[in-house]
Write a structure and sequence with these properties.
The protein has 7 helices and no strands. By secondary structure, the protein is mainly α. The relative contact order is 0.10.
Length: about 180
């Protein structure tokens, strides 16, 4: 079937083009590089096995993110409930220098780990992956207005988490004589 071959070629091209972004999204969802790799592999298999897919390239990209997210949700449902998500720890040690951009990136990454999963997810889709509100709504299976309000709350939560990481002076109980 020529249509099926064409779809497969388009899916393969989209996967190659967005592999790093899809992996980044999977890594943010799972907080583990190996799980993210497995999740992305599962997404690729499911996409390539699909009998039909979107016609436009933009829709195809959003469709891949939807498959990835749904695979992650399925994995979460299969896991037994665990204690605390914070016990997962950071995604890995990062080597860094005193480069302002790298410090800002690390600050945002650490803050993303501290905010609610829904907030992290909408920031990842809109601000980091570059999806429009309507595309993110399609991926999350919610109305566009919900994405907009979640994103607003998520950005506020992210700012609060970043502010909470700032170093603050420790005031001693001693009085200094002038």
């Amino acid at each position: 079937m020529p249509g099926t071959r064409d779809l497969r070629a388009r899916i393969e091209a989209a996967l190659r083009q967005d592999w790093q972004r899809l992996f980044s999204y999977a890594h943010r969802l799972t907080r583990d590089r190996d799980e993210a790799a497995d999740l992305l592999q599962s997404c690729a298999v499911k996409a390539l096995a699909a009998p039909r897919g979107p016609d436009s390239e933009a829709s195809l990209r959003a469709w891949l993110y939807t498959i990835l997210r749904n695979a992650w949700v399925d994995q979460l449902r299969q896991r037994p409930p665990s204690g605390d998500d914070a016990a997962l720890g950071p995604a890995g040690a990062e080597l860094w220098s005193f480069d302002d951009r790298l410090i800002a990136d690390l600050t945002v990454r650490r803050a993303l780990e501290r905010i609610d999963g829904q907030h992290r997810e909408v920031i990842e889709l809109v601000d980091l992956a570059g999806f429009r509100y309507a595309e993110a709504a399609q991926i999350l299976a919610v109305p566009t207005g919900t994405v907009m309000s979640r994103l607003s709350r998520a950005r506020l939560a992210l700012l609060e988490a970043i502010e909470g990481q700032n170093i603050r002076p420790i005031h001693s109980g001693r009085r200094h004589v002038a």
